[in-house]
Amino acid sequence: MMWKNYELDGIVLELGEDLTLCRSDKVLVNSNKGTMVVPVKHKDRREGLVFLGHGRLVVDTIVETEKGAIGKPIDREICEPFLMLGDIEETLQHLREAGKEDLARNGVKVEDLFDKAQNLIEKFSGRRAIHGCGCNNEGIGLVFAFATEKDRLDVLMLNGSRLVFNSGNLSFVSNGNHSILNKGGQVVLATDRRSIFVERPCHNHGC
Question: 100's torsion region: left (phi>0), alpha (psi -120 to 50) or beta?
Fold first, then answer.
């Protein structure tokens, strides 16, 4: 299953304040004041936003087992464009249309913003949905796709208590008291009562 074919809206918005886009006991996504934002639409309906600025991403990928805690939290500064899909109505209330003086103040060109946003959308639209999520791109809650310096996409999906995070050779799924961590060929499945360790053979140099 492929994602929808999204396209950019022909407008640039600006974030007027530091804003928390998502917060839970395991996830935090912030975007900083002054970030430029391009709306994303599907069939003339706005369904997402591309953020071009700075922010912060935190994902708690720690799994508690009988042998102790496995893994470590992801905590990184966001410097590359990222995409947010889902319910964007509340976020739109914190955005205003960016004028020429706003763009000049931030030292950016409209063409560059659209080029970066379009590149991100094309990468994401051509990506297969994460099988571990158990859902398609209808009613998925929130989805974030973060461009990285390594020219890949880190994808975070949230739907109620369910969380899926993919970043390179790390895959993490959490749903209530159940967690699965797959990193470097080792898979850990944990509940509030027991945990299972599975070693998977490594067939590439990324393990």
Answer: alpha
Question: How far is it, in rounded angstroms, from Cα 201 to Cα 127?
Answer: 25
Q: Which residues of 47-78 are buried (b: 16+ CB within 10 A; e: fewer)?
A: bbbbbbbbbebebbbbbbbeeeebbeebeeeb
The residue extents of the domains of the chain are 7-167
Tens of pLDDT, residues 148-188: 877 789 999 999 889 999 998 899 999 988 899 998 778 88
SS3 155: strand
Q: What is the residue whose two structure tokens read 């998925």?
A: 140
User: Which tens digits make up the pLDDT trace of 127-140?
Assistant: 654 443 434 444 56
Choose among 186, 90, 102, 180: nearest CA to 172: 180
Alpha carbon distance 173, 71 (integer Å): 13
CB atoms inside a 10 Å sphere around CB 89? 8
